Amino acid sequence: MQMEAVHQLEGLFSAVQLQQVFPDGKTFPDCLPKYPLQVINDKYISQQALPSFSLQAFVQENFLPPPEYKTGYTTDINEPVEKHIEHLWDVLTRYPAPENSSLIALPNPYIVPGGRFREIYYWDSYFTMLGLQVSGRVAMMQNMVDNFAYLINNIGHIPNGNRQYYAGRSQPPFYALMVQLLRENKGDSVLVNALPSLEKEYAFWMRGKQQLHETNTQVNRLVLLPDGAVLNRYWDEYDTPRPEAYREDIELAHKSTEAPQTVFRNLRAAAESGWDFSSRWFADGTTFETIHITDIIPVDLNCLLFYLEQTLAEGNRLAGNPAGAAIYTSLAIKRKLAIERYCWNETAGFYVDYDAAANTFKDDITMAGVFPLFFGIACNECAEKVAVALHAKLLKSGGCVTTTKTSGQQWDSPNGWAPLQYMTVKGLEKYNMFQLAAEIAKRWIHLNIKVFKATGKLMEKYNVVDTNLLAGGGEYPSQDGFGWTNGVLLKFIKIFGTKR
Q: Considering the entire predicted model, what is its pTM?
């Protein structure tokens, strides 16, 4: 048995995770084995039944903890937050180096989010790049785009992060936006050069389309709808517990009435969404064990793929391939019509997800509903209705809350997240709703700076309802660092300044 990563050790891995040898389930998958994994596995099999056997001692004897990066950097809360972020770019930079672990080596330096997140994350990186652009770090932007092209070409898609245990899933497809962002600095050749990678990513999301028919309406990340339209969903290649949350996944499966494999697949698919986790994915809107994301057509995912189709059309035009451009333009038009048909809820006056299993709208008002504004899909009347609902239901004192529900999950109220603030602000601006956009941005800037002055940290997420409290919820403690918060805050400050 050839083994390449700790999570493939089966019996040992399960024992370590279920007995919580490490408080954080992500630690053991990131550990470095001191010896070949086959040797460690053979030792475990021969020793585990001995009366003197200690699992904790065995792990310490055979594994090294994940590397820690000591920079010697100390926060000065009296300096401007912009200067703090400039320091953090270096603190959060990682360089290519072979590591005998689950880490997938990349050819170029990159920025990690921070805290327990020791690797790149796909959709985080676009928002990080917004700040890198403000900082004039174009070389790092290029590195990150090239790293993602490397992953697409070597794995077939951009995984959740550059870890082997993430390879079964991707994340919201922001690669086209990264390419377009870099193009702003380096010209049209960026898009032309990226075309093969963009086309390969699109093929990943559309894999199995030819297998769809009336009696086989769901394949991989695709759903065939009653009128013949094809839209996308989140998925994962595997239906086993996530290695980084092994114990939590097994415990949840025990509570569910669904088959364990169904629960595991849905948990993995939710991790692909980036919204892990939210009541948005729960069948009853409340209970975690009713998670059913693979039944859901997410409005934000399909807007991102609409943009990918548009980008491929533009790239083909620039490359002198009008026939290819026409194909992708037609696909984008079809997807736009399908988004309008299946995700616009006139009663709610908002864009929502669609439950393909129940053939009905999901009733959740969430920040995902602003993506059609960001990508220019919404008609003017729809955009105005979205703004009204956004102001009434999601805008709070510190910015916009992710959903209207308080479930204890981190992608629900009272938490707000940097990427969704950015998508909302820029979406509103696209429809000339500058006053509301500025109000959201300024509330977010004020909250970020307030927490920085109090703690010396920029956080992964924020409590936007009660700005005197830190954010909570989720499978792990709130992290600081933090890549996408740094990027969005720096971008907002450049546009709106720091005064309320």
A: 0.97
Task: Please state whether beta strands 415-416 and 462-463 pair in parallel, antiparallel, or not at all (unpaired).
Answer: antiparallel
CB atoms within 10 A of CB 493: 20
DSSP E strand stretches across 74-141:
93-94, 110-111
Q: Is the pLDDT of residue 394 over 90?
A: yes
**Which burial class, exposed, middle or buried, applies to 51 when counting CB atoms under 10 A from its CB (0-12, 13-18, 19+)?**
exposed
Range of the domain at 500: 374-500
Which residues, in sequence order, are CB contacts of 139 under 8 Å at separation 6+? none
Name, in order, each residue with C-beta under 8 angstroms of 290's C-beta and a sequence gap of 6 or more: 256, 282, 283, 284
**What residues contact 243, with CB distance under 8 A and at least 6 apart?**
6, 7, 13, 17, 29, 165
Name 119's Cβ contacts closer than 8 Å, sequence gap at least 6.
94, 103, 104, 112, 161, 162, 163
- As a whole number of angstroms, the distance between CA 179 and CA 427 comes to 19
DSSP, collapsed to helix, strand or coil, labels residue 223 as strand
Evaluate the CA torsion angle 256, 259, 260, 265 in order and state its sign: negative
Active centre residues (catalytic): 276, 460
At 94, phi and psi to the nearest 5?
-120, 150
Task: Render the burial of 375-394: b for 16+ CB within 10 Å, e for the rest.
Answer: bebbeeebbebbbebbeebb
Residue 396 lies in a domain: yes
Model confidence pLDDT, tens digit, residues 271-294: 999 999 999 999 999 999 999 999
Residue 360 CB partners (closer than 8 Å, separation 6+): 354
For residue 193, tell me if it sits in a domain: no
- Mean pLDDT of the 121-143 span: 98
- Please, which residues have CB within 8 angstroms of residue 320's CB and are 6 or more apart in sequence? none
What is the distance between the alpha carbons of residues 94 and 96, in angstroms, rounded to a whole number?
Answer: 7
Neighbours of 19 (CB within 10 A): 12
Is residue 126 within 8 A of residue 160, CB to CB? The reply is: no
The answer to whether 223 touches 294, Cβ cutoff 8 Å, is: no
Query: Is 500 inside any structural domain?
Result: yes
The answer as to whether 356 is a domain residue is no
From 229, 181, 173, select the one nearest 203 (Cα to Cα).
173
Query: Of 18, 46, 64, which residue sits at a domain end?
Result: 64
Residues with Cβ within 8 Å of residue 50, at least 6 apart in sequence: none
- pLDDT score of 2 more than 60: no
Q: Reduced to 3 states, what is the DSSP secondary structure of residue 374?
A: helix
The structure tokens 């300096």 sit at 79
